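Troubleshooting: if your tokenizer reports a length mismatch, compare your output against this known-good record of 638 residues.
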Amino acid sequence: MAQTTIEEFTRLPSSRDVKISPDGKHLSAVFRRDGEDLLGVLDRATREPIASFKVSGKGRAVGEVTWVNNERIVYTVTESYHWNKQRFSNGELVGVNVDGKKHRLIFGYRSGESTLNTRIQKNKANYGNQEIIDLLEDDEDHILIAFYPWRLVGNMWMHDPGAQTLIYKLNVYTGKTKKVDVLPYANARAITDSQGVVRFAVAVNDSNNIVISFKPSAKADWQEWQPEDLDAEDVTPLSFTADDQKIYMLANVEQSTQGLYLFDFQTKAFEQVVHDEDVDITMLIRDFSDHRVVGVGTDLGLPKYSYLDGNDKKVQLHRMLLKAFPGQDVVITSATEDGALAIAFVYSDTNSGHYYLFETESLQASYLLSKRKWLDPDAMAPTKAMTFETRDGETIHGYVTLPRGKGTNLPLVVLPHGGPHGVRDYWGFDWEVQLLASRGYGVLQVNFRGSGGFGLDFEKSGFGKWGTLMQDDITDATLALVESGVADASRICIYGHSYGGYAALMGAVREPQLYQCAIGSMGVYNLPMMFKEGDIPDRASGLAYLKQALGEDQADLQERSPAYNADRIEADILLIHGARDERAPIEQAESLKSALDDAGKSYQWLEIGDEAHGYYDEDNRLAVYEKVLTFLDANIGD
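Known-good structure output:
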């Protein structure tokens, strides 16, 4: 079997976002052709293409796709630029019929420009982002959207952290809007009831606490809402029951893991529906009407599901598909209005993902498309969930991926995740992990303390512990693989992106004898600088986060910064950074670069001029991973 090339791993998916129309007559999918994303519509019965569309304008592309009725599709628009290849939502919505007719911009900052049909009155230009919050099932011409206004800074439109969210009723054919509500908080998320009435507003305040307002009825005023008789944090309303008498909510009770609760408006009582003491709920399964929560998923190691209503059609379908595809996970992406047909996305650690059309009555599944058809699942490496015991007796979870046919004395790449708080690693297909495994490297991913997904106590235990306790967890998991004979102690490299880049370099600082090399990608290396540079300190909530997550003692921040400890580094170093990065600005990498120069340490440097916090251009991806593999091969390769 020929080795899969680097380019095949770094290539963007060839298809995504496959969905079925409400009446089941058509399918839609986004296809990548010649570097562009095209929205295609197919006849469901014959699979023959009916029409395809693309967004006009350099750097613009199809984003998320939504069927709003049997004949009409609405899609968002993303933009990238010659100086920054990251795709940003530009706030626009475009509507088109399945036959390609009435293809027009219906919302966004260019919606005030002239249209192809000059008889149509121009709509108001809306500078900001939007989110579809309700399809209004009984009104085929309109949808409900939340609008998040921008502000003009100099000659640039930018996110406005103080702007209240506006709710518009939008005509999907003409683009006409009617303002129906203003949420009481800035950047609040709206939740509608079964009648399409906005009843809850949920936001995060400047102290990073969740705040909630509630409307008892459509015409009532907004009033602050707090749970009574429930010692909980991060209470988050999800969706109303079909009769609007109750609402599902996620909550962390008594600092524990996140569970699903049902709140009764009449009795004011909370009912615990699902709670796992070890891990947060990470997935929700709603019924075909999208109102009731009928199942939840957790990821302690591999995905695991709990079903709340065994008689529900979607539950029965999901349970059946998991049995039909053992060892894989299933996401039902869309279904017809009557639930007779559904689209399922099936993936695993070795399968990048296939889309299937499933007939719920006959129980027949037919293959549609693959995300990366050129990647052979049989050539990929399995990912195993593992637990590790830390030096202070804590049990932490992680994943190990080993090259096919190999299991001992391996060169190891330790791959800490970014974030770090509220973020974690999951089981599933990861093309970067598979690329490394295909070149003979074992890969270790650790959900160290401070990671999300394992309860508030677990996450908060990492506050103020960057580079210390959190780093020790990574070290302890690495040493466990050495002691078990999986990893060769003389061939270990630590490599990560964002916070993972920080952890990679702090690993080299704290454990100079453990790691032969370290790769920092778009990382932060100077903790005091985080309070001054980048987009995080631009917001009050960002500063609050930094104070909570890092602490404010300058001497301590310096002690936990690679840029202030470059003299302690013995490993070979590779630094990769996007020149346009605002989250971890390139000044972070330059600070470490200067410190390494001052300490007389050698290193390799790769600056990507047209990337920000990530590598989105295929050519840039290829260049990055060719560099990474060459560096790994020189340091720990066979």
